Amino acid sequence: MPVTIHNKRYMLKLLGFKIDDKELVRNIENMGPNVKRIDSKEVEVEYPANRPDMISTLGLARAVRYYMRKSRDFKYEIKQGSEIAISVGNHVSGIRPYIAALVVDNMQLGEDDLLDIINFTEKLSNTYGRQRTRIALGLHDMKDVKGPLTYDAYEDEEFVPLGSKAKMKYSSVINSDRRGRKYVGLCKSGDRYVALKDKKGTMSLIPIINSERTRVSAETKRMLVDITGGTREIIERVADLLAADFMDRGFAVGRVEIRYRESSRSLPKMQSQQFSIPLKQLDDEIGVAIGFNNAIVLANKMGHEAALVGRNIRVTAPAYRLDVINEQDIIEDIAVGYGYDYIQPVPVASAAMGQLEEKSRVNNAARDAMTGLGFEEAMNSYLTNEETNFTKMRHAKESEYINIINPRSGLATMLRTWVLPSLLKQLGQSMHDSFPLRIFELDMTFGIERNVPRETYHLAAVSCHSQANFNEAKASLEGLMQSLGAECEVVEGENRSMIEGRCATVVVGKRNIGFLGEVHPEVLTSFGIEEPVVGFEIDLTGWLDAAYGKSGANLAGDAGRQS
Amino acid sequence: MHRHELSVLSALKEKKRLSLDRLLAESGLGRDEALWAIGNLASQGLVKAERSGGYEVRISAEGEGYVKNGLPESLLLKKVGEKGIELSGLGSKEDQIGFSWAKRKGLVEVSGKRLKLTGSGKRAAKEGIGTESVLRALSKNPDSYAQYRDGEATKELEQRKLIEVKSHESVSEIEITHQGVLALAKEKQTEEAIESLDRRMIKSRSWAGKRFTPYNVKAPVEPAVVASRHPLRKTIDEIRQAYVGLGFTEVSGPIIEPAFWVFDYLFVPQDHPARDVQDTFFLGRPKEIQVEDRSLVERVMKEHETAWHGEWSRQVAMQAVARTHTTSVSGRYINKIIGEMNAGKKYELPIKLFTVGRNLRNETIDPKHTADFYQHDGIVIGKGLTLANLFDILIKLYKGMGIGNLRFKPMYYPFVEPGVQLLGKHGDEWVELGGAGIIRKEITGIERSKVNVLAWGPGVERILLVKKEIESIAELYGSSVGWLRKMQGV
Known about the structure:
The complex is a heterodimer of chains A (563) and B (490).
Chain A: E1 3-7, H1 8-15, H2 21-31, E2 34-38, E3 42-46, H3 57-67, E4 82-88, E5 98-105, H4 111-126, E6 135-141, E7 149-154, E8 158-159, E9 168-169, H5 170-176, H6 178-187, E10 188-189, E11 192-198, E12 201-205, E13 209-210, E14 223-229, H7 232-248, E15 252-259, E16 264-267, E17 273-278, H8 279-286, H9 292-301, E18 305-309, E19 312-317, H10 327-338, H11 358-372, E20 376-377, E21 383-384, H12 386-389, E22 403-404, E23 414-415, H13 420-428, E24 437-449, E25 452-464, H14 470-483, E26 489-492, E27 498-508, E28 511-519, H15 521-526, E29 533-539, H16 540-548, H17 552-558
Helix pairs in contact in A: 1-3, 2-3, 5-6, 8-10, 9-10, 11-14, 16-17
Chain B: H1 3-12, E1 17-19, H2 20-27, H3 31-43, E2 47-52, E3 55-59, H4 61-69, H5 72-80, E4 85-86, H6 93-104, E5 108-111, E6 114-117, H7 119-127, H8 130-140, H9 145-148, H10 152-159, E7 163-167, E8 170-176, H11 178-190, E9 193-194, H12 199-204, E10 211-212, H13 231-245, E11 249-250, E12 256-258, H14 259-264, E13 283-285, H15 294-308, H16 314-317, E14 320-322, H17 327-342, E15 351-360, E16 372-382, H18 387-400, E17 406-410, E18 416-426, E19 429-439, H19 441-444, E20 452-456, H20 461-468, H21 481-486
Parallel strand pairs in B: 9-10, 11-15
Antiparallel strand pairs in B: 1-8, 2-8, 3-7, 4-6, 5-6, 12-14, 15-16, 16-20, 17-18, 18-19, 19-20
């Protein structure tokens, strides 16, 4: 979950009442966020990813005020008519087609407010805005802005970027700025750059940097906020969120007309959503009897305006609640308002018999047999690399394996096709432990057949000590198979990882299910093993197929896979 | 006869005479054991032990003084002389010491107020005191100690701290005596000790009347390895037990999936950070896995486009990934069962299913970190199921897993509404165990008043962490054999 560090003094000022740390943490956490840390100066809060309205200190304080029933004012008024207009040009249509904006007036920014607003808009762009791909925001002091404003993609031209003294070309801003290089794909279409301009020139190279000319400071009295992105609904709702945030700071918000070629929109719209929910549905989904009056109080606690209409509760969700999709979200809010701590558990009536899957039973029987034979159970990553899976095992790289296209490290570039390399790797790390070393693993391996992934359970076991020999491995394997009630046959076989003439194929029915033998000394050396190793690996899914004629794919975990 | 004594005699049986080192080698006894046995045997006359090595003799300061001036009692004898002296004449400290030793040795006697020499006193005055001559001899030649070693005089000198003797002497050669040979023969005859019992002896009862050679029960050994299940596997099995005990049926599903089942079906928007290359492993082979149910894909697309406003890409949904949670299995079963119910199949509700399985997340991998982790996912499909029901099941389930202290907190997950975070008490802290909630109707495709689904998917390793105090989750995978052995009891 994303995190905001709040200035505690500022938070308490916005709350407007006295509250001790414990009580503050309890109330914040009961609403959903987690408080990671609280001290005399700061409160570090993880906010839910779907609640960008809780990013700003103001937004979090607003939620706490409602939750603690200190606030019951749900109105957001915006004067009619647009104060300015932005014309949208044709060149942004393929790259970043939509813009929303609002004017903030009568501002009196303290240092804390300014920091909170900058942090809010920055975090909003990076988290909810998906690193500025979905939305990007710009704040501009309007005292030096002259209409008309245009939003379009322009050829390379000059402006003074924020924090700079000299004029720079768009292209050189992008090349010299860390963020520019990161976001270059978001702002450039052919030879054109996405920008917001007024009569005096560039206000913002979007979504990279604003102009020095429109820099916002504590002295700013009137501000333009632009929000750009690829989905109109989303940026317009973000405009609502910002408008509510600024109005709650005591500023006035004015509308901006966005002129697209075929239509125009006056924003922010302050769209509040209304839901009518039968009271019974609340009780039925939460599992407690809530009652009419209580339902209204609980909705209010979550910042919703609520009223009774017949046997329904009518809830108006505020415009800043971007997460609300339908009545399910309101029901959750009422449950949160009620408090999860106060919901009494209620048993579900059911007389069902539980049972394990057949393959869990078989796997457990095999694991019991192996520990009975003196092998300790190991567990290894499903991930490996070609070197371990093939090269160190003296095998040529196959093409029928599942590989990963975005590995973070060279250690995990593919899914293992067998278990033996994992066990040898462990033995190599255990040369200082007392011998004999005997370990086994029964778990998943991965392959592809005709481009269809295949997941099969393999059982591999190794024994490493100075006297290790073929017959020991054979005795263990036959003991295992007997205990599982299977008859297997051991015939001459080959495996490049094993010593020639000391390797056998394991056959159940007419099917080869694996091999057994003495590990080749070159393989031992490649894993740093200093004593002989014998072992075996069998495909348990294959064995189950052979033994019971059941579908191996089904037992390997393909139960849910649709063919 | 003690077995050590028997060992010594046996070792001497053939050669009759052995050096101590040879004897130790032949008998297999330790040095202390052998010397103890030799001492016992020698005192019974069964062996003769020859000693060799020397002594270091040092004359003390007091002794040196007496070497020069004579012992106090010898001086006293001179003072007393033939005639004797008045007792009152013994004033000095030296006179007192001389008097007390001369008296003890019977060289002087008191008669009235006079002190007189006794007969042996007179002899000593003439011939000198033995102790004094030994002291002088030792002072001249310390090596002469050997000849005085057993005499009374040396004992007295040592007692009086006039000399100090350090012995370097030890047994060097041991010889069996005739008596020793006889004793050994007798011992062998009556007590033939049994080293190891065998089948023949047991059947024939030939062990009867014989002795078993005793073993050193304190000798250190390497403890045997108790092969056991992996601690993580044990935890997984405990979880399975808890589910089955609550009437849940186990299911499972693929690890390699199209993104559709891991994300899209579960209402996770296509631009959600969880779908980022930073978090999910995307596969190159196979690159895509098709979902054949066209009407399902259509419905999911519509739900996404309505809720998230963006365009939904079929291609993105069909990308092959390694699943990042077992909730994909729950999703497959929710879809299957509700689909069958819609098609008219009758199910006895509620249906309770669970899966425990491994997932992979694109973490930075090094010897300390792995991408692998387990999750247990449960669903209850029924009618009129509530948040209060969900809490009840989770409390019982975790009790079954050994975690009695559970807390619920609101939390956001794209697939549930309401969303619940489970916390378990670990010491004084609440540790996040995972998520739960009621599945959104956008996923089930059916109004909740008809059918709703309780679901949860917490981590497994966290349970191990809370219950068993394992420090690092990364250790669980691919650790050394030594670590596995250390974890036996866990």
